[in-house]
Amino acid sequence: MNNGRGKDAFQRRRSHLKWLYPGMHVKRWLLLLIAGVTGVSLGLAYLLREFYAVAGVPQHSYYLTLPFLSRPVRALLFGPGGVLALTVAVIHLNRAVLAPFLRPGQPDLVDAVFQHRQRRRGPKVVAIGGGTGLSTLLRGIKEYTDNITAIVTVADDGGSSGRLRREMGLLPPGDFRSCIAALSEAEGLTSRLFQYRFTEGIGLDGHSFGNLFIAAMAGVTGSFEQALSESSKVLAVRGRVIPSTLSDVTLEAELREPAAGEMGLRRVEGESQIPRAGRIIERVSLEPNDPPAYPEAVRAILEADLIVAGPGSLFTSVLPNLLVPDIARAIAAARASKVYVCNLATQRGETEGFDVDAHIRALERHVGPLFRLVLANDNFAGSPVEVGQWVKPPSFQPGDYLVVTADMADREFPWRHDPARLARSLMDLYETREP
């Protein structure tokens, strides 16, 4: 028991030393504070000396200055004591002032400041996709950097998003809602609130609160992109969430039956209808086929240190962003490290029978060789029978792209990515690879 208390005390003392770490922006103000206290002390000392010389004082006060000791000894006694008192006062003053803003379960003040400074200096990451895959990535990567831009597909036409899109002429808010919740400081509560889906009520049944919130914010601010920006401020989002295009696009697909040739091709419109068709996806495209990219998305890509596509549905979440021509051109021109994160398991109605190489070849058929680094899973424990089969890396390293593998599986749902493992694998890859 005593060892535990001693260890905790040591950890607290060690934690306080973080105030002196480079980049904390504390030492300069601490030195200024010390200089100010020194100036005030000198002024008081001169006044007290003058008062001591001209006024009568009780005899016992004479001994408070320890005149029987040499001046160097008195400096060693009073100096460290003053520094200790100053340090304790500053620490407790900061705690008292900031206590109302620190929520239970948050790290100590010094750890919170240290983590904030570290994230502010983190790499500029652009994450491209949609659906649960993108929000999973954002949930993990926000622990390493605040410089995050999530570029989200606007091709969704199902569920609550599809209804708002058809009835209000609004870009589909569903994937944006999930990304904002994932990047929020209050992620747990925000996720539950934003993902809450009404199950009754005329007009409300089937809608999620987050979708209605973004729709209302669009009405208040006058535009969808401004609604995303203001919603992010309200929810203390780390980074930003933006669309790949502001155009009202429809995702279309050419499908074929297994073992059928060109004569077996059938065209399907609508992102939500493509997986339901139950056929092999030959190709997907946007209508209109040349929508202008959202300028902030292009700027973020060109300024990025790391560009990540996926994880997520290959044909209905990742590719709809890359099919915006200016987005693909910006990725090709960017000097950032470019990584495609492959799914852990295949998806019914989209990628049955696909391995890692098949995912890459599908990307290349649509947008060319944009991604030369591929991050794939190498933990195949458990069974993905609920969704499909494992997506396994090639048995040998391909000549035109590099596959890096890591254990990224969630322990409870092994066919899904674990946010922390996925983010750590990406950061390891970024730190060890040149663009």
In short:
The chain is α/β, with parallel strands linked by helices and 435 residues long.
Overview of this protein structure:
The chain is of the alpha/beta class and 435 residues long. The protein has two domains: 12-103, no CATH class; 122-154 and 244-432, 3-Layer(aba) Sandwich (Rossmann fold), CATH 3.40.50.10680. 47% of the residues lie in helices and 12% in strands. The protein is built from 16 helices and ten strands. The strands form two sheets. The chain has a seven-stranded parallel β-sheet with strand order 3-2-1-7-8-9-10, with helices on both faces. A three-stranded antiparallel β-sheet has the order 5-4-6. Helix 6 packs parallel to helix 8 (174-183) and helix 8 runs antiparallel to helix 9 (187-195). It is elongated and about 110 Å long.
Q: At the first level of CATH, what is the class of the largest domain?
A: Alpha Beta
Q: What structural class should be given to the helix and strand makeup? A: alpha/beta
Query: What's the architecture of the largest domain, going by CATH?
Result: 3-Layer(aba) Sandwich
Shape annotation: elongated
Write the element-wise H/E pattern from the N-terminal end onward.
Answer: HHHHHEHEHHHHHEEEEHEHHEHEEH
CATH overall fold name of the largest domain: Rossmann fold
Low-confidence stretches at least 5 residues in length (pLDDT < 50)?
none
Number of domains: 2
The overall pLDDT average reads 84
Relative strand content: 5-15%
Count of helical stretches: 16
